[in-house]
Amino acid sequence: MEMKEIQKTQGVYISTYGCQMNVNDSERMYSLLEMLNYQPVSSPDQASLIIINSCSVREKPVHKVHSEVGRYRELKKANPELRIGVGGCVAQQEKDRLLKDVPLLDFVFGTDSIDKLPEIVAKVKSEGQPVVSARFEHQQPYHIETLIKNPGVSTFVNITKGCDNFCTFCVVPFTRGRERSRPLKHLLEDVRRLVDRGVKEVTLLGQNVNSYTSDCGTNFAGLLKALAEQTPIQRIRYTTSHPKDFNQELVEVMQACRDKLCEYIHLPVQSGNTQVLERMNRGYSREEYIEKAQMIFNTIPGVVLSTDIIVGFPGETDEQFAETLSLLDEVPYESLFAFKYSPRPFTKAARFEGQLPEEVKSERLNRLFERHRELAFPMAKKYEGQNLAVLVEEYDSETGRVSGRSTQNKLVHFTGSQELIGQTVWVKIKEAFPQTLRGVLVQ
Ligand code: 5AD
Ligand code: SF4
Fold first, then answer.
1. What pLDDT was estimated at residue 3?
2. What's the domain count of the chain?
3. How many other CB atoms are there within 10 angstroms of residue 101's CB atom?
4. pLDDT tens for each residue of 337-390
5. pLDDT at 294 (0 to 100)
6. Residues 367 and 409 in one domain
């Protein structure tokens, strides 16, 4: 009888907020829960286990958890066996407070407790008591294997976790803990295994990938070189890098291994004004950033840059914001991710004077996006007539179109067939749109 209970397959639904790191963590949760015979389901009403993988980087997080759990009240009434848990940054931040605030919850687990999920769920079910597991495992080495059920053509591989930079606006050092790197040896093995499963492209993930340091002393440039030379992976991307740790050695390795390392760098600047950057604790000035960008363009001709910008940081004046706008003229960013400053718990900037009204932030955000649109469209137009190497990821049988990314991280659509999935092909670009490119297969 008991065995039957254990073997019965059940449904798990994970609702994921926030960054790629969280998306990757959710994949890991699904794989771990398979050990308890849980299968992913596509809607909460089919699930006997619901997990909210929360984010607190820019949102009003506890509020969001509240309203989502509220939507499951009826489901829980109909099925008293349903268990609901919260993981991710909000869980790490709020810990047992979350159980008090949201009584419908059965468990809360922090960012360092993901690998304990099977244990936690088993405990919740057997004891019928709420469980909280949200301690940082600072002393533990960072040893995980990429767990992903259907890795597909392109997948993500965590290389570091946590962050020690303490930018004054950012909650990540508090929700993800101190920085840890996975050993080089493990990463090489991990990537080789993924290649064996059909993966053609990996994106190395970390809050600040270029401060990666293996236990054997290898730095990020060394990791890229080793992955390019010692594994059969076809393409390597990474995100996110910090300008202060971006150096000549790294750029030279990218150029030398260009056949595998994609020609795309996400290099968050956050502001174009040196005083604001100082108050953000970013560790570089406007001029130093521009110099680094130039070094990148000079060493890797044709490389594409994108960035993150925060507008309305406490005390940001109109003149200081104007310097962020004018940075767009100095550094050609093909994509821009911009956000209104949002005060986050525990962070220094939340207590700074000069917090700006919402209207000022919104107005600056609109102006920034507008300026970027004016500049970015001509940048996209330059691809018309060019041949780009595209790794095909998807086929849509209804339209007969396939899509994939160029090494510059451009989304390209063209007419093709299912068999092209996983292949890198040359595509001649016929028309550029603001976000995507349309082309034809070069035979
Ligand atoms: N407010 C607004 N944007 C933020 N980001 C991080 N913290 C905040 C905040 N408190 C943005 C930064 C970072 C991106 C992931 O999110 O631009 O690079
Ligand atoms: Fe946050 Fe700064 Fe660390 Fe990025 S580098 S995660 S913005 S503290």
1. 43
2. 3
3. 14
4. 999 999 998 899 999 999 999 999 999 999 999 999 999 999 999 999 999 999
5. 97
6. no
CA distance 142 to 206: 12
pLDDT of residue 2: 44
Q: Identify the sign of the CA torsion 50, 55, 61, 62.
A: positive
Q: Is the pLDDT of residue 137 over 80?
A: no
Ligand 1 atom at minimum distance from 270 CA = 17
State the Cα–Cα distance between residues 210 and 249, nearest whole angstrom: 11
> Tokens in use for 184?
């080089």
Examine the domain organization and report whether 40 and 65 are in the same domain.
Answer: yes
Q: Of the ligands numbered here, which is closest to the C-alpha atom of 166?
A: 2
What is the C-alpha separation between 374 and 355, in angstroms, rounded?
A: 29
- pTM score, two decimals? 0.89
Domain-located, residue 78: yes
Q: Is 166 in the pocket of ligand 2 (CB under 6 A)?
A: yes
CA of 268 relative to ligand 2 center, distance in Å? 10
In a domain, 81, yes or no: yes
CA of 172 to the centre of ligand 2 (A): 6
148: in domain: no
Asked if residue 17 lies in contact with residue 55, where contact means CB atoms within 8 angstroms, the answer is yes
- Do the domain assignments include residue 143? no
Ligand 2 contact via 57 beta carbon (within 6 Å)? no
The more confident residue out of 273 and 146 is: 273
CB 215 within 8 A of CB 141: yes
Are 293 and 361 in a shared domain? Answer: yes
Tell me: do 225 and 332 sit in the same domain: yes
Q: Which atom of ligand 2 is nearest to the CA of 242?
A: 5
> Letter for the amino acid at 149?
K
User: In terms of domains, do 359 and 388 share one?
Assistant: no
Question: Which helix H or strand E contains 203, and what residues bound it?
Answer: strand 201-205
Q: How far apart are CA 250 and CA 368, in angstroms?
A: 30
| Domain end among 133, 168, 191 | 133
- Cα 115 to its chain centre, rounded Å, is 19
Q: What range defines the domain where residue 98 resides?
A: 3-133
